[in-house]
Specification:
Elements (H helix, E strand, L loop, with lengths): L15 H15 L4 E7 L5 H14 L3 E6 L10 H12 L6 H4 L2 H5 L16 H15 L5 E6 L6 H13 L5 E8 L4 H11 L4 E4 L5 H11 L9 H11 L3 H13 L3 E3 L6 E3 L11 H10 L5 H11 L2 E3 H8 L3 H13 L3 E3 L7 E4 L2 H9 L3 H18 L5 H13 L3 H17 L3 H15 L11 H15 L3 H17 L6 H19 L3 H14 L6 H16 L6 H19 L2 H15 L4 H17 L3 H19 L3 H12 L3 H17 L3 H17 L3 H16 L4 H13 L8 H15 L3 H17 L13 H8 L5 H9 L6 H17 L3 H15 L3 H18 L4 H15 L2 H13 L16 H5 L4 H9 L6 H8 L3 H15 L4 H13 L3
Parallel strand pairs: 1-4, 1-5, 2-3, 3-4
Antiparallel strand pairs: 6-7, 8-10, 9-10
Amino acid sequence: MASPFRLRTVELVGRDGELAALSRVLREAREGRGGIVFVAGEPGIGKTRLTAQALDEAKNEGMTVLRGRCTTIGPAVPFRPLTEALLSLTRAGEEPPAEVLGPYLPVLGRLVPEWSTGADCDESPVVLAEAVLRLAAARGRRHGCLLVIDDLHDADPETLAVTEYLAANLSAQPVAVVATVRSAPSAAYELATAVAQRREGSLLPLGRLSPAEVHTFTASCLGSAPAALPRQVSAEVYGDSHGVPFVAEELVRGMLAAGRLARTADDTGWELVSTERPGVPVTLVRVVEERAARLGPGGVRALSVAAVLGRSFPLSVLRHCAGLDEALLRERVRAALAEGLLQPDEERGPDWYAFAHPLAEEALLSLLSPADRADLSTRAADAVDRLYPGLPGTWCLLAARLRRHAGDRPTAAAHYLEVARRLLARSGPGSAITVIDEAQLMLGDAPFAPVRGGVHRELLETLLLALADDGQFDRAVEVADRLRRADLDAEPAEGADVFRRVGLHVRLAWAAEVAGRWQEGLAQVAAARALLPAAATERDTAGLDAVEAYLTVSDTAPDRIERSERLARRAIEGARQLADPALACQAWYAVGAASRGRSLAESDRSFRQTLRIASEHDLMGWRAHGLFGLGSNAWLAEGATDSLTYAWHEALRTGCVSLAHYAGQLLALDAALRSDFARAEALVAGSLDETRRLRLPSVTRYLLMVRAVVAAHQGNRPGLRATLAEFRAHGGAESMEAPLARGLGELFCALLEEDRDQAREVAASLAAMARADEGSFFHLTGPHGLVLLLEVLDGRAGRAECERLGAGQAGRLRWNRQFGGLAEAVLAGREGCPERAEAALRAAQASAEPFPTARYLGLRLVAEAALTDGWGEPRRWLAEAEEYFHRAGVIAVAGACRSQLRGVGVVVRQRRAGTDGIPDALRAMGLTTREYDVFRLLVDRLGNKALGARLHLSVRTVEKHVASLLSKTGTRDRDRLCDFAADFMSAPR
């Protein structure tokens, strides 16, 4: 008769070092230095039990605890464990911190329905990962947060992507992540190993227990001291379990149930009953089988059917499959609960149960012959079909796997296809790929095998779409090539088949556009157009026209802007015929962007169409795009930021994170041009790390360009040089941001250094670029403004060129108007029309009012021409410019203004007394203000003559300053002095 004794809760044995490692991670998270730990080991080794200890410690320390479990059974949805973890907050009645999450709150609505705003939002897994990170950090702001992900080996690809992202970005957050993973080969274990190798987290492997540890463990199971347990008991347990804790626990349970292990007569200890050891279990399979047999008639069969269904299962399905009446089934389940084989699955509902450990499920499956498993799988699949018509999301993947094990491959393949399509519709491309790969493995589909028709082809087409959406462009192209070869071997396609193939190429083209592989995207467009029948209408080509419109902008063809607009307008008509409002918004937005160079008013009308259609159809993402287009146009036209700021806030509010970064980058550039350098740098710094994490390369480059502009407009050559190096490292040299970095950065810095030769060189290159590409979007780079002024000052451009450029849309932008007005003033002065010159200058100064550095630089540039031609108030302009640049610390321009004033007889007060601008370390060496001016320019290794020209000093005076610097800095020669200057000026202070 079985003993009534029940096992005690087992203490952790032999895990002191591992528990200390987890405690350290939790402590560091509470201190704001988060990290991730992968607890790895074979099944039954104690991963969950160790993690439970960490959970208890976290709760005792007041940490927020979030926990989710991965599973291959149940709803086939991406991010399942994350959803489960976050739902615990809603069950506790906790609201997400909207003020902290900002644009990421709507993104989290993908995981937690209660938090959904119903608005469109970024669907990138990276953006979702950032949202989870921000929420966890907000919850852990006071005492830290622990996120536990159980059974990561069963995770969907999207969850693995989020886990990898978290690992790379936890170091400065109050968040600890603990994930359990089997040490067998899997994508999850490869991820854990890679993270540990990159030193972004740690891998905590759990080994088997030693004989001494098994002795302590066994005594703990029995609630006794180790001394009260005979060594022969633990020796038998160790011999059969090989040190695996779960197996050891099951063996002890089996010994108690069989009556072989009993209390001593004096109740002070334990003894093995001197009976023969019949059928002593040597593996867990035997243990599980014996325990299942004790459930009564039909017990083994019921649990075997449950194992076929998976680790979790509902009683309703099990009853239909096992052929037991409800009362008897519930009796068997209660017995299984008492035996520790099953446990309630409270997360899934009152009708759901789960195996207490995966090994129990695996052991039961191993007892089945292939024929028995096929038969039970067929019965289970039939029951699922009857109970859940249409196989809603929870059941379709299970039905596919059951039909696969039943040997019904055609039906299984059809189910796999349906699961993949549903996942793809729910923005789960990674999970869709995994499901199709499983189907291909079942079908024996090799990469170069012939493509069969029917479900096989549909699986490949769906795989192509999923790969494109997931950014796996190269593999998507391979699948497309398989389909193309099959098409060449088949009869010529007609009708719907042609447009289906066109649609596949369109999806590949969009994937290439998102990946920045524009030429490959255009190649996909060409392949699609080659398939189109001659009679194809705008309705047939709308999607193709739209993607080509976006790709064409990044091409190098001289007519790319005009072609982009033509394609977008065709797409608009096609979208109208298709009644597709999202496609219409997309096309109108492309028209707005393409027409901007010709007419901002026309561009505004297109963006308003985007805004109108989006508002009518509740397309919040495209509404934000329309607002952004209008806001950026208003900023270009008049430097007004109200609309742009509103668009920025709307993008943040609706979860359009990528668009919010695009708006933020323009606001950062606006701050730089307004000489509000602190705000510009704050905006850049606040976004740069995030855009790198979110993999937004164009935004990252733009922000680095803005940082270069900030350095350039302060005459900070070392800062400019360092930022441009980083800009180029991110692909900036050949990017669409390169002209801005050159025109707003390098050109300005050269002028603020009074290096006219370099300024002319940069200006000439920008002018040549403009002539080669009149349709360029980058109108602020100089050819329509600052470059024009320099060419007029040098006599290389006259009135005709000035009027031509000023009449165009680019010349009418506020930033360019200030320089175009100055060029007009210079030309009028030369023509002997002082009144017209002064009127042009006043208009230019009004346009320049928001941009102080540009405004005073313009006065400094024009003053010399005004002195020569005898118009205006050049002495006052120079005095104002000198005062501004002196206060700004731009020594070369301030010195040039003073020199020019002295040249026309104006007495200029000395500026040498103040040393506040000299860094403390150099002031301690005794450097004077003028020596510091020379020191700063030595960074560029200028000769004495060039230094004198920059500072408007004689060569002999420069020689004295250099000799004094050698002495005060302790450097032995000029080369070492230049090295010292370069190192000092580039070091953060």
